[in-house]
Design goal:
heterodimer; A: about 650 residues; alpha+beta; Nucleotidyltransferase, domain 5; Actin, Chain A, domain 4; 5 domains; 6-stranded mixed β-sheet; 5-stranded mixed β-sheet; 15 helices; B: about 180 residues; Nucleotide Exchange Factor Grpe, Chain A, domain 2; 2 domains; 3-stranded antiparallel β-sheet; 3-stranded mixed β-sheet; 3 helices; about 45% helix; elongated
Chain lengths: ~650, ~180
C-alpha cells in the first residue's frame, strides 16, 4: 500500500504532507517551496501554468489567471458569495446549469477541474519527492462547507487521479496535528486567520469522534488586510515627508508591499524594526530614499481594529455551540497571521488561557490531514513512542576517564561497538567497568557493573583488539560483551534496568554534569595530555632500543635529552609544560625516525635483486589508530 | 606506574545472566496470527522509513554542500537590488560644474568596481544572473508590469530587478517588464 497524501487545499496557498516515522512531514514542491499558490493560468502561447509559475505572469494575463477558486467550488451561480466575487475577480465567471464555470483561454472550466490542476501538481511533486506513486489522498475543507462543496472537492481529487479516502474539516485537522483528538470530553476552539479568510470553530471531542459544534468567521478578512494597513501608513508618512505619492508608482508599490510584509514578520519577534528602501523613486532633485522606523506598539495601534474584528465571530460561534468562554479547554492557532503577538494576546485575553501555537501555523492543517491519512493507512495504529536512554552509558578508560558508548537521549533498542586495547606490554586481561552518567571522570558516574576479560595473548601495548559491545534493549536491559578479536574469547554481563538510577537521580546527574562541565573538561584534557606523554615516552624508548646502531650517538643525543626532560615532569601537574615537552620530543623523534626510514629504504634498494619477503617496517606511531578511535584501557588490580 | 597483570591470580567475574526469555505461546499458529502480521508490517515499515531517512539525509547533505551559502545569498539579494537602484540613479554629470565633475566621476568609477567585485565573489559561490533576453519564462521571470510596444507580446522589455540562480536552483526570479500587444 502506498502513502496516502494529506492535502490542505487552501484559498490562496496549498500544502501537502505524509506520515513518515509516525510523524507528519511537509513535502516541498518541485520549486522547493513548502506551500504552493492555489493558482492556475493559461499562458499566451496556450501553455498551462500551475502554482508559482501562474503567479509570476498574473500581471500580464489577469483574465486567464485564476485564483481563489475555493470561493466558487460547489456553489450555485445565484449564491451571494459568487455574486460578490464576480465583481472582484478579473476573470469571467459564467453560469453552467445550476453551478458556475470559469473562462480560461478558449475553455470554460468547472471549479472542480481548476482545483484538480492544483491537486495534480501537488500529486506529481509529491511522487517525485518520495519516489513512489500516490493514488490516495485526504483533503481538508472548511467546516462550513455543505455537501455540494464537499462532493465537488472530492470530484476535484478524482479528476486529478486521486482516490479521496476522506474529506476532513480544517479545524479538525488542526486539532489532529496537536493530538487533541485524544482529549475525550474536551472542547477545542480553532482560530484560523489565513491570508484572505478568517474562520473560528468550536470542536467537541468524544471517545471516537471530533464533532464541529459551531463555526463562524469572515470570508474576507485575513493577513492581506493587515498588510494593506501598513502599506497605507508607509505611503502616507512618505507623502507627508517628501510630498510624493509612492502608491502611484507600481514598482515602488511592489517594494513597499514586500517591505511591509517583512516589517510585520520582524515585529513578531523584535520590538521595533527599520524599513529601509534606498532609491525607492526619483524626485525632482534626485533619487529619494524610504527610511523609517516602525515599532511593534505602532503596528499594534494600526491593526488593532482588525484584530478586534475577529472576536465577533468568536462570540457568535461560542453562542451557537451553547458554550461559554470558560468551557473551552484548548485553543489551536492556524494561519500565518496568528504568529503576531497582538493576535495571540487578543485571543488569549478573550478565552482566558494560553493558545497552542507550537506547530507551524501555515502547516498545521496539512500535518493534520497527514495524521488522518496515517490512521487510515492502518499500519501505524498509534504513534509508536519509543523510549530514549536518559543518561549516557560507557566504560572506564586509561586515567579514570569515562568514555561514552551510547549517548544520552539515544532511541532504544540500540547497540554500539567500539574497539579498545591494552595499556601495558603483555597485559593479559582488561577490566570492563560499565558506567552511567554524563561526568567526564569515571568516579563521578554511577557504576553499573564490572567484569574482566582475560586470556589476551602477550603483545605490545596498544596491539590487542578488544571489541566491546553495548546492547540496550527496548526494556532498558543492558548487555555488555567484550571479545578479544585474536582469540575470540568473550565475556559478558547483563545489567537490568533496576540497577540504574531513579528519575530524581537522573535529573540530579544531569544538573551536576552541567554545573561541573568546565572543570570536568579540564580534568579530562589534563589526563589526555598525560596519557599522550606516557605514550610518547614509550614509543620513543622503543624506537631507540630497536634502532640500535642504525642511528648515531649524535642523532640520539637531542632525542634522549628531550626524553629525559619529559620523563622528569610527566607525572607532575604542570600540564602546559608536559604538553610542550611532549611536542618537542615528538619533533626530534620524528627526525630520527625519518632518518631510520630512509636508511632502511636504501638498504632495501641495495637488496633489490634478492628474492624473499620484504622486511616489514617497524614504524612506531604514538597512537595506534583503527576505524574507530582506539583508546587504551587500564588493567586494574583485583584484590 | 602500572603493575603487570598476574595472569593466573584473577578469576573472571561472571555475573548471573538475568536475561528474560520471550514467552512463546505454543497455541498461536504463526501463519494466521494477525498480531504477528501487524507486527511484521510495522517492522518492515520502520526499516523502510529508516532506509528512506538514510537516503534522504545523504541527499540533504549533498544539497547542503551545493547550496551552503544559499541562505546568505538570499538575504543579500535585496541589498543587491538597492545597489543596482543606486547605480541606476547616478547623478547627471552634465548638470554638475567642471570642478566637481571629475571628483564625482572618479567616485562613480570606484563604486562601480566595488559592485563588480561583489558580483565576482558571488559568482565564486556558484551564483549566476538569470538570462533575461527573449520571452517571459515563468520558471525564471516574474512579470511586474506590462507595457505596449512594437515587440512581440511577452517579450521582456526591461529588467526591474535581476534574477539570481545558484547551481541549477532559482533563488529569486528576475523581475521584468513585458511587452503587451498594442
Amino acid at each position: 500500500m502506498g502513502k496516502i497524501l494529506g492535502i490542505d487545499l487552501g484559498t490562496t496557498n496549498s500544502a501537502m504532507a505524509i506520515i513518515e516515522g509516525g510523524k507528519p512531514k511537509i513535502l516541498e514542491n518541485a520549486e522547493g517551496h513548502r506551500t504552493t499558490p492555489s493558482m492556475v493560468a493559461v499562458g499566451k502561447n496556450g501553455e498551462r501554468l500551475v502554482g508559482i509559475a501562474a503567479k509570476r505572469q498574473a500581471v500580464t494575463n489577469p483574465k486567464n489567471t485564476l485564483y481563489s477558486i475555493k470561493r466558487l467550488i460547489g456553489r450555485s451561480f445565484t449564491d451571494p458569495e459568487v455574486t460578490r466575487d464576480k465583481e472582484l475577480f478579473p476573470f469571467d465567471i459564467v453560469k453552467a446549469g445550476e453551478g458556475v464555470k470559469v473562462k480560461m483561454g478558449e475553455e470554460e472550466l468547472s471549479p472542480q477541474e481548476i482545483a484538480a490542476m492544483v491537486l495534480g501538481k501537488l500529486k506529481a511533486d509529491a511522487e517525485a519527492k518520495i519516489g513512489e506513486p500516490i493514488t490516495e489522498a485526504v483533503i481538508t475543507v472548511p467546516a462550513y462547507f455543505n455537501d455540494a462543496q464537499r462532493k465537488a472537492t472530492k470530484d476535484a481529487g478524482v479528476i486529478a487521479g486521486l482516490d479521496v479516502k476522506r474529506i476532513v474539516n480544517e479545524p479538525t485537522a488542526a486539532a489532529l496535528a496537536y493530538g487533541f483528538d485524544k482529549k475525550a470530553g474536551q472542547q477545542i476552539a480553532v482560530y484560523d486567520l489565513g491570508g484572505g479568510t478568517f474562520d473560528v470553530s468550536v470542536l467537541d471531542v468524544s471517545d471516537d469522534t471530533v464533532e464541529v459544534k459551531a463555526t463562524n468567521g469572515d470570508t474576507h478578512l485575513g493577513g492581506d488586510d493587515f498588510d494593506l494597513v501598513i502599506i497605507k501608513w508607509i505611503i502616507s508618512e512618505f507623502k507627508n515627508a517628501e510630498g510624493i505619492d509612492l502608491g502611484a508608482d507600481p514598482l515602488a508599490l511592489q517594494r513597499i508591499k514586500e517591505a511591509a510584509e517583512k516589517a510585520k514578520i520582524e515585529l513578531s519577534t523584535a520590538s521595533d524594526t527599520e524599513i529601509n528602501q534606498p532609491f525607492i523613486t526619483q524626485g525632482a532633485e534626485g533619487p529619494k530614499h524610504l527610511v523609517m522606523k516602525i515599532t511593534r506598539a505602532k503596528l499594534d495601534e494600526l491593526v488593532h481594529d482588525l484584530a478586534v474584528k475577529t472576536l465577533e465571530p468568536c462570540k457568535k460561534a461560542l453562542a451557537d455551540s451553547g458554550l461559554s468562554v470558560g468551557d473551552i479547554d484548548e485553543i489551536v492557532m492556524v494561519g500565518g497571521m496568528t504568529r503576531m503577538p497582538l493576535i495571540q494576546r487578543t485571543v488569549e485575553d478573550f478565552f482566558g488561557k494560553k493558545v497552542n501555537a507550537s506547530v507551524n501555523p501555515d502547516e498545521v492543517v496539512a500535518s493534520g490531514a497527514a495524521v488522518q491519512a496515517g490512521v487510515l493507512q492502518g499500519d501505524v495504529k498509534d504513534v509508536l513512542l519509543l523510549d530514549v536512554t536518559p543518561l549516557s552509558l560507557g566504560l572506564e578508560t586509561l586515567g579514570g576517564v569515562s568514555t561514552k558508548l551510547i549517548e544520552r537521549n539515544t532511541t532504544i533498542p540500540t547497540a554500539k561497538s567500539q574497539t579498545f586495547s591494552t595499556a601495558a606490554d603483555n597485559q593479559a586481561s582488561v577490566e570492563i567497568h560499565v558506567l552511567q552518567g554524563e561526568r567526564e571522570m569515571a568516579q563521578d558516574n554511577k557504576s553499573l557493573g564490572r567484569f574482566i576479560l582475560s586470556g589476551i595473548p602477550p603483545a605490545p601495548r596498544g596491539t590487542p583488539q578488544v571489541e566491546v559491545t553495548f546492547d540496550l534493549d527496548a526494556n532498558g536491559i543492558l548487555n555488555v560483551k567484550a571479545v578479544d578479536k585474536a582469540t575470540n574469547v568473550e565475556q559478558k554481563i547483563t545489567i537490568t534496568a533496576s540497577s540504574g538510577l531513579s528519575d530524581e537521580e537522573v535529573e540530579k546527574m544531569k544538573k551536576d554534569a552541567e554545573a561541573h562541565a568546565e572543570e570536568d573538561k579540564k580534568k579530562r584534557e589534563g589526563i589526555e595530555i598525560k596519557n599522550q606523554a606516557d605514550t610518547m615516552v614509550y614509543t620513543t624508548e622503543k624506537m631507540l632500543s630497536e634502532a640500535g646502531e642504525e642511528i648515531t650517538d649524535e642523532d640520539k643525543k637531542p632525542v634522549t635529552e628531550k626524553l629525559e626532560a619529559l620523563k622528569a615532569i610527566k607525572d607532575g601537574e604542570d600540564l602546559e609544560a608536559i604538553k610542550t615537552a611532549a611536542d618537542e620530543l615528538a619533533t626530534v623523534a620524528q627526525k630520527v625516525g625519518a632518518k631510520m626510514y630512509e636508511a632502511k629504504q636504501a638498504e632495501e634498494a641495495a637488496k633489490k635483486g634478492e628474492a624473499g619477503e620484504e622486511k616489514k617496517e617497524d614504524v612506531q606511531e604514538a597512537e595506534v589508530v583503527q576505524e574507530d578511535e582506539k583508546k587504551e584501557e587500564k588493567a586494574e588490580d583485583k584484590e | 606506574m602500572k603493575k603487570k597483570k598476574d595472569e593466573t591470580a584473577v578469576e573472571p567475574e561472571i555475573v548471573e545472566e538475568k536475561i528474560v526469555e520471550p514467552v512463546v505461546d505454543e497455541t498461536i499458529d504463526p501463519a494466521s496470527c494477525i498480531k504477528c502480521k501487524d507486527s511484521e508490517a510495522a517492522q518492515l515499515r520502520a526499516i523502510a522509513d529508516y532506509q528512506n531517512l538514510v537516503r534522504e539525509t545523504g541527499k540533504q547533505r549533498m544539497e547542503f554542500v551545493k547550496y551552503a551559502s544559499q541562505g546568505l545569498v538570499e538575504d543579500l539579494i535585496p541589498t543587491l537590488d538597492y545597489f543596482d537602484a543606486a547605480m541606476a540613479s547616478k547623478p547627471d554629470l552634465d548638470k554638475i560644474d567642471e570642478a566637481a565633475r571629475k571628483t564625482i566621476e572618479n567616485w562613480i568609477v570606484g563604486v562601480t568596481h566595488v559592485q563588480k567585485l561583489m558580483m565576482d565573489s558571488l559568482e565564486q559561490q556558484g551564483v549566476k544572473l538569470v538570462d533575461t533576453s527573449g520571452m517571459l519564462d515563468t520558471s525564471l521571470h516574474e512579470a511586474v508590469e506590462e507595457k505596449e510596444s512594437d515587440e512581440a507580446e511577452g517579450t521582456i522589455l526591461s529588467v526591474v530587478a535581476n534574477g539570481y540562480m545558484m547551481a541549477d536552483k532559482l533563488l529569486r526570479p528576475a523581475r521584468v517588464i513585458v511587452s503587451k500587444s498594442k
